[in-house]
Amino acid sequence: MPYFEFRKAGVLGMKSIQMNGRTVEEAVQNALRELNVTEDKVNIKIIDEGSKGLFKLFKGKDAIIEVTLKNDYIEDARKFLREVLNAMGILAEIDIKENDDIININLIGPNMGLVIGHRGETLDSIQYLVSLVINKNNNGEYKKVILDTENYRSKREETLKRLATKIAYKVRKTNRAVKLEPMNPYERRIIHATLQNDAYVLTYSEGEEPYRKVVVDLKKKA
């Protein structure tokens, strides 16, 4: 008869089980049946490979393994977001898609302006918290989280690109550097990328977070 032992690991209730079998393969199958999952949903650690009996005179030693459920990133993200949205009094559909190591989350519903916040600050804060939740105790398999609603990210990117082009023209015309308002790292990268091949201006960042800002200046002042 196989024996097993349940354990808990991590704040999200990640489950670990020890199981035995006449072989490692049998122990794995026993564990998968007990957890009711497929092998791609677990991490397997061999504790003891066991041994065969000798000429049927001596009983063999069972193999022992430890099987741990992998993080369910989708459900972790969905559960956390639902709690946050409920606390904010917001009804929204949560659409989550995973592509390689990127988890794209789109919120659909009324009052999304409350979720976005001033220049996306609330949206960025929630995105950061979701990333912390799903990447905790993930055994190094980092998942990037992109949280969006009403196509805000794309619209904001286009706005920043237009701003970068406008500021570059202003710097050339006035022959004076321009400091932009403080931005998060993602938005600063958009400004830098937009102007990186400009023949007349250069960009750099200065200041400390969260007040770090982009400076646009002439490459060669007249």
UniProtKB/TrEMBL annotation:
NCBIfam families: Jag_EloR
Keyword RNA-binding attached: yes
Protein name: RNA-binding protein KhpB
Protein's job: A probable RNA chaperone. Forms a complex with KhpA which binds to cellular RNA and controls its expression. Plays a role in peptidoglycan (PG) homeostasis and cell length regulation.
InterPro entries hit by this protein: Jag_KH, Jag_N_dom_sf, KH_dom-like_a/b, KhpB, KhpB_N, R3H_dom, R3H_dom_sf, R3H_KhpB
GO CC terms of this entry: cytoplasm
Key words, A-Z: Cell shape, Cell wall biogenesis/degradation, Chaperone, Cytoplasm, RNA-binding
Domain R3H as annotated: residue spans: 154-220
Oligomeric and partner information: Forms a complex with KhpA.
Organism name: Clostridium colicanis DSM 13634
Keyword Methyltransferase among UniProt keywords: no
One of the record's GO molecular function terms: RNA binding
Region Jag_N domain, residue ranges: 18-68
